[in-house]
Write a structure and sequence with these properties.
binds NADP nicotinamide-adenine-dinucleotide phosphate; globular; 5-stranded parallel β-sheet; Rossmann fold; 188 residues
């Protein structure tokens, strides 16, 4: 994937995979929109990159209005979105039977609704890009086959995010030549 001189929106950049991804994209010459809830951490990371080609937008991906405002702010600042990285996620290792239902709900909100909210808001811009990319950070846990999952305690930690994108949306993305590599970042 060529990222130089492109514009990426990356969710969940205040630690871990998201922070590393945002910094790696910026090193390769990609403008990066830094999205997560903790503003102090967002500012710290922007300062570490420190070259004006980042935009800090504190956002809770479970909040539709906040996500819409983030996309609008991105379009005002950069005029386009070429890459959308769904990385924000809640990782819980508990077996389902041990899980607190409130935690379960919270995980659904972030890992599922966060992806649909962000896709809905940003996809028109990505489709308008010349060869946009939608990257969904997933997990090997989400790819284990059903038989194996039955034998193991089922992990609540991950969601196969590719399945979150409904079929008509996938069709539009395919028509527009937009790529959706799930687990792309984990694979490289
Ligand atoms: N690390 C692993 O071994 C592993 C394994 C499999 C899959 N994954 C997946 O890879 C992704 C990154 O994992 P990680 O270990 O780097 O996670 P992490 O260090 O816990 O970071 C999670 C990020 O998501 C953000 N986030 C959480 N809830 C959010 C919300 N409501 N709105 C916006 N941002 C939110 C957090 O920022 P704020 O708290 O500032 O909002 C943080 O930046 C996750 O989707 C995870 O499920 C990770």
């Amino acid at each position: 994937m060529n990222v130089t001189d492109r514009v990426a929106v990356v969710t969940g950049v205040t630690s871990g995979v998201g922070e590393a991804t945002a910094k790696a994209l910026r090193r390769e010459g990609c403008a990066v929109v830094l999205v997560a809830r903790r503003e102090d951490r967002l500012e710290r990371i922007a300062n570490e990159i420190d070259d004006g080609e980042t935009l800090v937008v504190p956002t809770d991906v479970t909040d539709e209005d906040e996500v819409t405002a983030t996309v609008e702010e991105t379009m005002e600042e950069f005029g386009r979105i070429d890459i959308l990285v769904h990385n924000a996620g809640v990782l819980r290792p508990d077996p389902v039977t041990d899980a607190d239902r409130a935690d379960f709900r919270k995980q659904d909100q972030v890992n599922l609704r966060g992806v649909t909210n962000t896709t809905h808001a940003a996809l028109p811009a990505v489709l308008a890009s010349d060869g946009g990319d939608v990257v969904a950070v997933s997990s090997m846990n989400a790819r284990r086959n059903v038989r194996e999952s039955r034998r193991r305690p089922v992990s609540l930690s991950t969601v196969e995010r590719e399945h979150v994108l409904p079929a008509p949306l996938k069709g539009r993305i395919k028509d527009a030549q937009t790529r959706i590599p799930t687990n792309y970042l984990a694979a490289v």
